[in-house]
Amino acid sequence: MVPYPILPAPRRTVLKAAAGLAGILATGKAPVFAQAAPKKLIIAHIVPPPESGAVALEWFARAVTERSKGELDVQFHGGTLMTKEIDILNGVKSGNIFMGTPSGAAATIFPEMGVFLVPYLIQSYDHAYKLLNGSVGDKLDKVFQEKYGVKINYFFDYGFRHFWNNKRPIVEPKDLRGLKIRTQPSKVFTDTVNGLGAVAVPLGWNEVMTAAQQGVIDGADLPVVNMVPLKAYEVSKFYSLTGHNYGSTCVAMNLGIFNSLTPAQQKLVLDTGREAQGKVTGPTQDIDTEKSAKAALEPLGMTINNPNREAFMKVAREKIWPVYQKMYPELWDLLAATQA
Prior knowledge:
The structure is a single chain. The chain is an alpha/beta fold. Helix content is 46%, strand content 19%. Helix 2 links the parallel strand 1 and strand 2. Helix 2 packs antiparallel against helix 11. It is globular.
């Protein structure tokens, strides 16, 4: 026996509810109270576009936001949240931001990547990506997850680095003698510059232009792709295509945040990351030629020259390679086993 009578709902209420349900079915939208807000993901970078890494990250943020169909809101901040590479990666490790890159300071923040920066060890872009998109990249990703709490989204590079300075063309290693050359604050970069014959001056990029203007440094090194965006031509006269360091770096994600995404969202982030890799590596490789360097920089008053690379490679093999072969024995063997 029912303790209280069950009264039928008023006809007007039934009709109103039916109309509401029909509207939901027609539009495919859930009621407002059932719709989840997009998950916000922050990307930080030291500089804005047109710097090459920033171009790819900005594209990635826009693409993932659009392709997630309202599930993810990826926001890119170039040079506005943080301006130092180490601060960005500390933010990724702590989970204050989702994703970032150590840019040219990869070996400082992730010492395991120092092996890629050993002068003249990486022979070509094809050689690099056989390694980075293969077993070596997978190995590094596993190490970074276990050791640093970050996951690699994709590897990329700033191209092969070439010396710029305001004193003279660099043709032979002896031409570097006495020149104060800025390097990233990383042992492999300082060892390269000192080993090839110059005087290394470790500085963050945000200090470089002022240091060049004040005579603290005579020059630095950059790939062709970033000479114009970073305005190095304003403080230098000579650009010598030494190709002494391969500028390998990566884009890292906070592992906890990545694991909090659904499997479909994780796949979207990784697949779009591989596309972003191509958006930065393609233009970097295309412009890394003497012809492109001259076209970009000679109208801005710079003189471009092709040095005797064999002479530089000989110095690197004799003075620098033995130290790093002992430092990275396992990775060194993997690199040596992968043909260019």
